[in-house]
Every structure is written in structure tokens, then in C-alpha cells.
Amino acid sequence: MMKLHKTPVRGSATGLQSMKTSINSMVQCELQSRFDTDFNLNINAFVLPTRVTSELPSQTLTKTHHAWQHLNGLDLADPNYHQPGRVDMLLGVKVYAQILLNGLIKGPPGSPCTQITSLGWIVFGDAEGNSSKNIIVMHHKLDLNLLVKNMWELDSAEKPELTADEKLCETIYANTTTRTKEGRYIVRLPTRTEKIKPTEGQTKDIALRRFKQLERKFEKDEEFKKEYTKVIEEYTTLKHIEEVPDTEIDAPSVYLPHLAVIRNDKDTSKVRAVFDASSKGINNISLNEELLVGPQLQEDLRNIIMRWRMKKICFVADIQKMYRQILVTKQDADLQRILWRKCAADPIKEYRLLRVTFGTASAPYLAVKTLQRYAEDEGKHHPVAAKTIKEDFYMDDLISGQDNTEDAVDVAKNIANILKNGGFNLQKWSSNSTSFLKQFPPDERNSNVNMAINLDGTVRALGITWNMGEDSFQYKLELPRQPITNTKRNILAEMQKLFDPLGWLAPSIIQAKMLIQKLWLHRSSWDDEVEPEIKKEWLNIRHNFENLKDVNIPRWLHITKLRLDQTTIHGFSDASTKAYAAVAYLREETEEGEIKTNIVAAKVRVSPVKPVSLPRLELCGAALLAKLLKQIREAMRIPESQVFAWTDSTIG
């Protein structure tokens, strides 16, 4: 009914007598107060397939706050608390601690107490004369073990068929996208229905309240205000935003709250404006809920990296302000209105964003789809460049190359020219070839020697970097300071920050995975100190992680197009009672007759807790290998006849 976006999870909630209910999804929502307009709290909530509990109270109370003088005149969080009603959300103790305020009123014996919170006064305790033999349990314990059991694995998923919404999104784009005389594309925001409900949600009032919160932050930090003002003024200078004319103020519209995101890892502007299209109106519907997100258009980053390793001369670049190079129609610009003033003494003015906007659910799809549309429309005379645009972009990052410098420069220049016709400018060129880089002005080159490779924008304790000078992959380790107490929660928190998308560190990471499984078997509490032998084992593993900084993986696999027929992929699988694994190597014969082998990718799994026979685990390893080789073959475009799978299992 709330139309919240669900994120798939696996877990269970445990209640009275250990009765379990499966949990398959989680939502993000904002908790607001009916009394405190400045209060809002973002929370993650797990979705139950059934109601949280039965109606509360179980029967209508004969006495109410009108009969209890100590409750008179209070703004109750639930004025109808005395009537049976459905419980829509159960807040955990962490949320309760955040809404709790100073103020407790105790009444005479036989009457309830009341506590002030950010949501209003809540009523609890005894109500004389309103006894019931029914006991309702309002405690649920989340089984975090199931929620995190598979969090370290990055499985290659089969490309699913398009859903009805994805097909509709593709149809809307194909039927409504146009171009300006200058070559820029104009897109519609893809919505499920022609008339959307957020325009009726009085979003202007909400955006105004959020903007005044932002201004209060400005008052406390003048430098922050200065940097954020620069960001908005840049939008105006580049004509990515315009003031709404008085004659169009009353047109159907949606106002987006905006906030600042500070990125200390950025070399240039550290402050970025984010527009909150997930903010709900008074009708409890946001713009993002009405927008279609579209299908996945680009390949997995792991596939792109595998293909990148086949290029002797490689190059990397990114598109400057990718989203903001694409126009939206005038009617859709009104769905992206914001409020702004430079100085608190000035009147607040209404603006609308004229470009695809960061923060809207459809923005990634529209940007990538338009990028690929450029390749189709402009790449007819440069087929290699057009193919590269379609296959070797990961969001706004170009990751590609060729067999020699001349071809690499030619393709790169053609890609840059094709995209420039549509307003996309490539910047921050990097390469393992100085001859390649000399073909680009110094201000268009990347000055960094190392480039971080990231899958989802998450800051990782262990991440992969590409060292341009050595043309190799290295691991950057930034483990937090060792905590005083080693708990299951702390160990898991550090584990999930290890980023190893292609499994090159599988022999090291599998030890930590087996340790986590051991913690489950010991039924360790999440926040208690782990047993001495487990602590010792974990500290040893953690110490050994320091050596991962010395791991060096060559980027180039010594492949060239002319000798692709001399290239073979060899995969191996094995199993033990503790784990099973699969690994693939590329074997290449050079022109000099030298044999070169390099690891491509690996996968490893901890054996199930429930005892499984070794023959069955050997089969699990073989199945894991088959999936891995299929992904590698498709990513690297290697014929099936040149792929071999090996196992030492002799079980028939």
C-alpha cells in the first residue's frame, strides 16, 4: 500500500516459543512527526509476509485519557490508542532511543504513564478496569545470520527477461526521445501512468521545510554554505536550471528537497547537491515511486575488467557530468522543481532542473540508454568505436584498449568525437602508454598514478587499484583500528568491507569465511567477546591480511587479436569437507613460442553446516566451475572449443 521500493534480503524473525517468520525484503523509509516539523528519521524496516501482531489494544478501553487528568492537554502520538487498531510498524530499541525525549508523567495507581517522544506523548502501563486474559507479544528477534550468510559472494546472474515495467520503460524511451539542433538528446521521465500522484502531494511545503533545515546548517558553517552556493550557481551558469516564470507557477509540479553530500575522496569539488526524489508528499507518494528504473543495460564490472585485461594498450576515461548532458522535456522539468535563495534575507524562489537529475530513480537508465543511443546514431562510420561505447562503459567510466598504440589512439579519438556531438565530454584520460597520453592535452589527463576500481560506490577496507606505471592490479588495505573487544558483529563488519570481485584473494578470504561459519556453530552472541581460540584465529587472519598489499596481478594477459586462436581457458575445481572452489587460468602462446599463464577469476564456497558427502561437494565444485567458465567465455568472447574444465575427482 505504501509502494516502497523493496530490497531483497534473506532472514527470519523469531518471536514467542522461537516461532519463526521468513523475511524476504527490506525497505527504506522516513519517520516524521505530526508535531515536530523539524524531526525526520531515515530507517530500514524488514517486511513481514503477515501482520506484525494482532490489533492493539485487544478490546476498547472503557477509561480513556479524558478520565485521567494527568493526560489532559497532551499531544498524544496516537490519540486513538484506546481503540483496537492495526500495528503497521514495530520500532526497535535503537529507534526508540533516538525518539526518546526528557519527560515522564506518572499518574495515580491503576492509571497509565506517559512519556514524551519526538512523535508525541506515548501512553503505557496499567489501566485499571481494563483487564484482559490475552497476552500479546510485541518482541521480534531478527536472525542476522541468514541476512548476511551470502553477503560476501558476487555471483554472476543470468540475464533475466525484461519485466513488464522494463518493457514499458524501453517503449517510452523509444517513442518519446528527440534531439536538439545541437545534437543533445531530450528525454521523458518514464512513469508508470501518464498522470502521476506526487503532483497532488503538496510537495512544496515539504521542500520548504527541508530547505529551511539546510539554511540552519548554513548558519552554523559559513564555509559549507559558500561551497554549496557555488554548486547551485554552477547549475545556473551552465543553464542546467532555470527560474520558474510566474505564469507557470501553478502548473502541475513536484518539488524536490535537496541536500549536500560531502565527498572527501574527490580531488575537485568535495560538495555535491543531491535531489531527494524519494521524499513523499502528504499523500505518501514520492516521485521515485512513480518512475520506472528500466532494465540493466551494461555488463557486470567483472566482465568488463576481464575483457580489459585482453588489451595490450589500455585506456580509461570518464564522462564529465554525464547525467547533466541530457535534457528533459519542459513538462518533466516541472517534476524537478526546487526552492533556493542565496541569502536568508532574500525571498525564496522556485526553480526547475532542466537535465536528468541525480537522485531520480530513472537517471541511471536514461544516462546509459542515451549513451548507447549515441553509439547507434553517430557510430555508423566508426563501428569499432561504436561497439566500444556499447560494451566497455561501466556507468560513466570508459574502460577499454587495443592491441597497439596507433589503434588505441584512433579508437579513443573517435569515441571522444562521437560523444562530443551529443554534449558528452570525456576527461581524465589514463593509460599504460605514455605515447597514448601524449595525444591528449595535459588538462584532459588523469594526474593520479593509481586508479581505484569500485563496484557500488561503497568505501572498502580492502579495494583493488590499477597501478598505471606497473600496469598491474594491487590491493589497498585500510582496516580500522583493532577494537578492544572482538565480537561476532565486529568481525563480520570488517569482513564485509573486503572487495575481491574476481576472487583473486580466495585462498585468504575463505579462511575468514570459515571462521564466520564456526561462530555460527558456536551460537556466539553478536555483541559478546568471542571465545579465546576464535579470537586468536581471527587476529591471525587479520594480521595476515596486511600481506595482501604485496599481491600484484598483471593487468595484461598477453593476448592479441591475431593470436586469439592460440588462447585457451583452463578451469579447475576441487572440494574438501570444509570448502569447495573453482579457478580459471588463461594459457597463451606468444609469437616467440613462450607459454604464458595468468589467473582470470576464482570462486570459493564454504561447505554447508549440515554434513554433505565428499562426492556431492565435488559435484558442487564442478557446477561452480561450469558457471564461472560460462561467465568468462561470454565476457572475453572466447569460443567454447577453447575452454577446458578439469577436476581430479575419480568418483563415477
Could you characterize the architecture of this molecule?
This protein is an alpha+beta fold and 652 residues long. It folds into four domains: 6-148, no CATH class; 164-444, HIV Type 1 Reverse Transcriptase, subunit A, domain 1 (HIV Type 1 Reverse Transcriptase, Chain A, domain 1); 450-553, no CATH class; 556-647, Ubiquitin-like (UB roll) (Roll). Helices cover 28% and strands 24% of the residues. It has 16 helices and 27 strands. A four-stranded antiparallel beta sheet has the order 3-2-1-7. A four-stranded antiparallel beta sheet has the order 17-18-13-19. A four-stranded antiparallel beta sheet has the order 20-21-22-23, with no helix packed on it. Helix 9 (363-378) runs antiparallel to helix 10 (383-391), helix 10 (383-391) crosses helix 11 (405-420) and helix 13 (488-495) runs antiparallel to helix 14 (506-521). It is globular. The two termini are 54 Å apart. Residues 135-141, 147-157 and 455-461 have low confidence and may be disordered.
